[in-house]
Write a structure and sequence with these properties.
With 146 residues, the protein is α/β, with parallel strands linked by helices. An 8-stranded mixed sheet has the order 7-1-4-3-2-6-5-8, with no helix packed on it.
Length: 146
């Protein structure tokens, strides 16, 4: 009887560890520190962009958005991104907010430049492009402003 209880206890413990691991991985949490470096970019609009959104280069995920807040001096949206270790970005990298699909999630697309100087921890991307306002474009088309 004791062997069955021990086996069930071990099985439940392994199951709880698996559930905990999946919760952390799927929730994009970091327990043991960051695995890269942090950079920022300021946008005139970040509508639809959320914390945890992907940061991509050529369609490959290289990081994620960790914080979005309003800069009180410039009234621009400041986006903080965690870039994976091993990804080196030039200081003339351009950041754009894109949409995956027609009505999909927003993400940050980075377009590397040609400079030899690289962005370090805490650096800022100066060349940014806000998301396209699809509703404004459709209304311009419908009402003949294009």
């Amino acid at each position: 009887m004791l062997k069955k209880q021990s086996a069930v206890g071990i099985f439940v413990l392994i199951g709880l560890l698996c559930v905990g691991y999946l919760t952390i991985k799927l929730g994009r949490m970091e327990l043991f520190g960051s695995n890269g470096y942090s950079i920022t970019a300021q946008f005139s609009s970040v509508s639809g962009l959320r914390n945890g959104a992907n940061v991509e280069i050529s369609g490959v995920q290289v990081g994620r958005v960790t914080k979005i807040h309003l800069d009180p001096t410039s009234y621009l949206a400041q986006v903080t991104m965690q870039i994976d270790k091993g990804i080196s970005l030039s200081d003339d990298t351009m950041a754009s907010i894109k949409t995956s699909g027609l009505i999909g999630d927003r993400f940050v697309e980075l377009t590397p430049g040609g400079s030899t100087d690289t962005l370090a921890e805490g650096s800022s991307i100066t060349d940014t492009e806000p998301p396209v306002d699809l509703i404004a474009l459709i209304s311009k088309y419908v009402f003949g402003s294009i």
